[in-house]
Amino acid sequence: MSVGPVDVYIIGFPGNKFTGRIVPAILEQVEKGVIRVLDLEFVMKDADGVVTALDLQDLDDEVGADFVSLEITKPGSLNSEDADEVSEDLPPNSSALLIAVENLWAAKLVDALDAADAQVIDYVRIPVDVAQAVLSN
Q1: What is the reported pTM?
Q2: d(CA 64, CA 57)
Q3: From CA 66, how far away is CA 62, in angstroms rounded?
Q4: Per DSSP, what are the bridge partners of residue 102?
Q5: Other C-beta atoms within 10 Å of 72: how many?
Q6: What are phi and psi for residue 74, nearest 5 degrees?
Q7: Nearest one of 90, 73, 71, 87 to 6, comparing CA atoms
Q8: What residues form DSSP beta bridges with 44?
Q9: In what order do the strands lie in the sheet with 51-55?
Q10: pLDDT, tens only, 95-131
Q11: Three-state secondary-structure class, residue 99
């Protein structure tokens, strides 16, 4: 079985406002076979700078309950070191979701590169705001 490249997204939530609004979009991509969710971690910093990190199994009805519907296929891929690194840059009274996803859509490309004895030399992701600015011209 081929493995696609893995991306880790760090998604910020000012005011510690986790909502379930992004879950349907993630589930849609999972159901279409575009991505597979490997792991996720929530990091919260309160107004006093106290940091709390939560795994999916730590969630309750108040904090990110909608995320419980996501199937995590490689729990532990993200860990406390990842949470610590993200928390350093979080302003007080904010949160972040770390989500690691495998890009299943690219697995066939990985196979083709392998069969052609080719290799990816570099990979660059263009941020959404930059892509929107360029493509809207």
Answers
A1: 0.84
A2: 11
A3: 10
A4: 6, 36
A5: 20
A6: -135, 65
A7: 73
A8: 52, 95
A9: 6-14, 94-103, 35-45, 51-55
A10: 999 999 999 999 889 999 999 999 889 988 898 899 9
A11: strand
Q: Give the integer Cα–Cα distance in Å for 25 and 102.
A: 15
103's CB contacts (< 8 A; 6+ apart) are: 4, 5, 6, 7, 34, 35
Residue that has been written with the tokens 């730590």 in this structure: 58
Q: Grade residue 64 by pLDDT with cuts at 50, 70 and 90.
A: low
DSSP tag of 5: -
Quote the Cα angle for 128-78-93, to 5°: 65
Residues 98, 56 contacting (CB under 8 angstroms): no
Q: Tell me the C-alpha to C-alpha distance, in Å, between residue 104 and each of 32, 37, 78, 94.
A: 10, 10, 19, 31
Tokens linked to 119: 């290799």
Task: Report domain extents, the chain.
Answer: 6-109
Structure tokens at 40: 């996720």
Cα separation of 92 and 89, whole Å? 10
User: Which residues, including other chains, have CB under 8 Å from residue 23's CB and lie 6 or more apart?
Assistant: 66, 67, 69, 70
> For residues 30 and 16, what is the distance between their CA atoms, to the nearest angstrom?
26
